[in-house]
Amino acid sequence: MMKEFELFVGPNHPGVTGNMSYHLWVEGATIKKVETRVGYLHRGFEKLMEKRIWMQNVPLVCRICVPEPDVNEAAYSMAVEDLMGWEIPERAKYIRTIILELARLGAHLLTVGGIAASFGLYTIAQWGVGDRDYILDIFEQITGARVYHIYIWPGGVRWDLPKNAKELITKVLDYLEKRMPLYEDLLIRNKVFIRRAVGVGIVPKDKAIEWGVTGPNLRAAGYQLDFRKLEPYAAYDSVDFEVPYYPKLGEYEVLSDGSDIYTRTAIRLLEMKQSISIIRQALKEMPEGDVILKHPQWFAWKVPAGYSYVRVESSKGEYGYFVVSDGGKKPVRVHVRGPSYTHGINVLERIAPGMNIADFSPTAISLDVCPPDIER
């Protein structure tokens, strides 16, 4: 009988999706048990938000998920707007949609690159980081920042798009559209990737809902659930797009029974194409007008007493904000429902036992976990 030993994956980035650690108990090359270890990042966002006035929380929430900060800005702002009874300007809705889909593109580039790198396909990882930089260039032009944008505010967006925004965004979309066949040929149609990813890291379809799986991971299990369609926000009810899900994988050949690394990767590549289409439509249909409501001095807000729960569809799944107000200048309670706690702890700890250690990192990265979302 082989001796059981302990193996640590993380807390440095290689093999995981950020500053977190997985403690593995392994017998030979087979995983027997997994425990998720967090606490290496900034923590306590929810309690910090209760100590800050409403507007001071906008630059705080974006740090809950660094690769895709804008979804937190949007969800928090929408919760405040719901409590205030505000309807934001139409132009602001379209701008929010553009920003959120650009963020989705950037996040998927990182994730797809990370999945590829976990199989030794480092070229795609380098492509993903490099191509994402062009999206960060856009954010820098629009918001003045590359990572934390602090652009989506309660009442709309911080300011209007620059005059050259359409040309700048379209140029990058054209470039990414031409790059997609390269990603597909080198990854999704790669025989090595297919052999390593098909049937690996399976989330049981009959347990996906029970375990709280959302986003691309849930759609890879065969559920066509996307809050951009189910509960439209921003301008998503004004653009046309299809939600890719298993087995509706478009031009990709269905090679597996779904809910594995291969299908989760294919869903993300298809979503990138959809994001490009959504942004093009939003740029074309966006009306003129104001981009933010005229409201009282930022630091004198008193939000009516009550509570609100709103949710958005991030690249990783459902992001929900439960916000409670007592009528004062600060929230009484804020709770963030992020997808990473479910995927990175509940799901992975259940499906990893019995897995070969060579398949652990690809599986973990394909679930697309954002560590600060767990430590919130």
Portion of residues within helices: 40-55%
Number of strand elements: 8
Dominant shape: globular
CATH architecture label name:
Orthogonal Bundle
Distance between the termini: 42 Å
CATH topology: Cytochrome-c3 Hydrogenase, chain B
Mind explaining what this structure looks like?
- By secondary structure, the chain is an alpha+beta fold.
- The chain has one domain (4-374): Cytochrome-c3 Hydrogenase, chain B (Orthogonal Bundle), CATH 1.10.645.
- Helices cover 44% and strands 13% of the residues.
- It has 13 helices and 8 strands.
- The protein has helices at 45-49, 58-61, 70-84, 90-118, 122-143, 165-188, 191-197, 215-219, 227-230, 261-285, 339-351, 360-366, 371-374, and strands spanning 4-9, 21-27, 30-37, 152-153, 156-157, 306-313, 318-325, 331-337.
- The strands form 3 sheets. The chain has a 3-stranded antiparallel sheet.
- β4 and β5 (156-157) form a beta hairpin.
- α4 runs antiparallel to α12 (360-366) and α6 runs antiparallel to α10.
- The radius of gyration is 21 Å and the shape is globular.
- The relative contact order is 0.20.
- The model has no long low-confidence stretch (mean pLDDT 92).
Short description:
With 376 residues, the protein is of the alpha+beta class. The protein has helices at 45-49, 58-61, 70-84, 90-118, 122-143, 165-188, 191-197, 215-219, 227-230, 261-285, 339-351, 360-366, 371-374; strands spanning 4-9, 21-27, 30-37, 152-153, 156-157, 306-313, 318-325, 331-337.
